[in-house]
Amino acid sequence: MIHGEIHLHVRQYINGRWETSATTGVSANPSDTSEVVAEYARADRRQAEAAIRAATEAFPHWSHSTPQRRADVLDRIGAELLARKDELGLLLAREEGKTLPEAVAEVARAGQIFKFFAGEAIRGGAGGGGGENVASVRAGVQVDVTREPVGVVGLITPWNSPFVIPAWKIAPALAHGNSVVFKPAELVPACGWVLAEIISRAALPAGAFNLVMGSGREVGQALVDSALVDALSFTGSVANGERILQTAAARRAKVQLETGGKNALVVLADADLDRAVDCAVQGAYFSAGQRCTASSRLIVEAAVHDAFVAKLRQRLKGLKIGHALERGIDIGPVADEERLAQNLAWVGIAREEGAEHVWGGEALERATRGHYMSPALFLAKPSHRIAREEVFGPLACVLRADDYDEALALCNDTPFGLCAGICTNSLKHAMHFRRHAVVGMTMVNLPTAGVDFHVPFGGRKGSGYGPREQGRHAAEFYTTVKTGYMLA
C-alpha cells in the first residue's frame, strides 16, 4: 500500500524484470517542496533500446494471444485501479498537485478505461480490431477485411494527467495485441511506476509491456529513432510533437500526436450567466489550468460582457488555493517551480501588451512552501499573445464579440483546434456552433475540460495529428488493415 509521506524508490521495468539505472532523479510534492515523493531510476539510451528489443521479441506471442486472454489482463488492471483509487489518488495529488478529489477521480477514470478496452479486446475479435466480409466484384472470389496489431508501440506521456493519459494509450495498445514501451514524464515517475507495477502483475508475457523513465532527449529520442518501434503516440508540446513527426515519418512509423490547445468558451447574451461562469471557472482554472482542454479564451457577447466579467471576478475572489490534500481546496499548486515562473512571466507579458488586469496572477504563500498562484483573469484583444498562445496554467482572458457571428470567427481564429464550448439557450446557435467550430470536440452549456472515456478524443489543426484517441476509434491507430482475397 502507498500512503502519504512515504518516500518511494522506483525502477525501470524491462523484459519482465525491475532494473536500476546509473543515475537517479527526484520528484517533490508541489504542495510542499520539502517532501520528496520518489527517487527514481533514470534510464539511459541503452536501457531504452533493451526495452524496445524486449517488446519486439514479445510481440509475436502477445499478438497471437486470444481475445479472452487480453480481456482478462486488462480487466484485472482496471479492477485494481478502481479498488485502489483513494490510495493512488493520494499519490497523484502528492506528486502532481491536483486536488485530492480530482486525483481520485482521475485514477477511477483510468480504471474505467482499462475495463472498457477489456471489452474491446473481445468485441475486436482475434484479429485485434474486428473485420468484415465483403462481396467481391468478381464471381467466386471471397474478400475479407481484417485488422491486425501494428507491432511495437512507443508511448510518451505528459505530467498533467499521469494516470489517465497513459491508460488511454496503454489499454488500447494491449487490447489490440501490440507490445508497449511506456515513457512517462519525469515530473511524475511514481505515478508511472505504480501503474507499471500493477500491469506487471497482470499475467502479460515478459516484454509485452515495458517502463522506461528518463529524459525525452535520451529515452524519448531512442523510441523516436528506433527502426523497431512501429508506432509512436505522443502527448505534449507542439514543438516536441513536430520534431517527433518529422523523424518518425522519415522512417515511415505510424504517428499519433496530441499537442494542446487554445480553447474557447463562447458566452452569448441569452445564456444563463451563472451557468456560464461555472463553466468558465471549471474549464479555465480547475486542475490549475493544466489541461489541454482548458478554456483559456472566454469570448463573450457585448450585451453581457460586463456582467459576465463582474460575476467571474467575484467567483475567482472566492476560490480557495492551497495544499492539494487540504479539504475544501478548489485549486492546488502548479506542477513545479519552472511552470510557476512561466505562468508569472505570462502575467507580465499580458500587462506589457496592454491587456486589462481583472484579477489574480500573483505568487501566493501558504503554510507549506509550494508552487501556488492566484487564478489570473485579463480583458484582452485577439492580437494579444495570451489570446493566441497556450499558457497551460491558471490564466484566462476575456474577448468581447459584437454578436454570434463574430464570436464564432474569434473562436476559430487560432492555430489550434482541440475543443470549444458555447453557453446559450438558442438551439439554432448551439447546432450551428457544433457544426462550424473548427475543433475536434464541442461542448454546449458544459465546461470544455471534462470528457467521457468511451468516445473519441482529439483535435484538428495544431492540436493533433493522426487518428483519435479513446473509444472504438482507437483501433484506427493501434491496428493496421489487411485485405484478403480467396477463390471460393
UniProtKB/TrEMBL annotation:
Pfam families: Aldedh. The active site is at residue 258. Homodimer. Keywords: Oxidoreductase. CDD domains: ALDH_KGSADH-YcbD. GO terms for molecular function: 4-(hydroxymethyl)benzenesulfonate dehydrogenase activity; oxidoreductase activity, acting on the aldehyde or oxo group of donors, NAD or NADP as acceptor. The keyword Oxidoreductase applies. Involved in the toluene-4-sulfonate degradation pathway. Does not discriminate between the sulfonate and the carboxyl substituents and can also be involved in the p-toluenecarboxylate degradation pathway. InterPro entries: Ald_DH/histidinol_DH, Ald_DH_C, Ald_DH_CS_CYS, Ald_DH_CS_GLU, Ald_DH_N, Aldehyde_DH_dom. PANTHER family: ALDEHYDE DEHYDROGENASE-RELATED. The lineage of its organism: Bacteria, Pseudomonadati, Pseudomonadota, Betaproteobacteria, Burkholderiales. This is 4-(hydroxymethyl)benzenesulfonate dehydrogenase. It is an enzyme of class 1 (oxidoreductase). Residues 24-483 form the Aldehyde dehydrogenase domain. Gene3D superfamilies: Aldehyde Dehydrogenase, Chain A, domain 1, Aldehyde Dehydrogenase, Chain A, domain 2. Its EC number is 1.1.1.257.
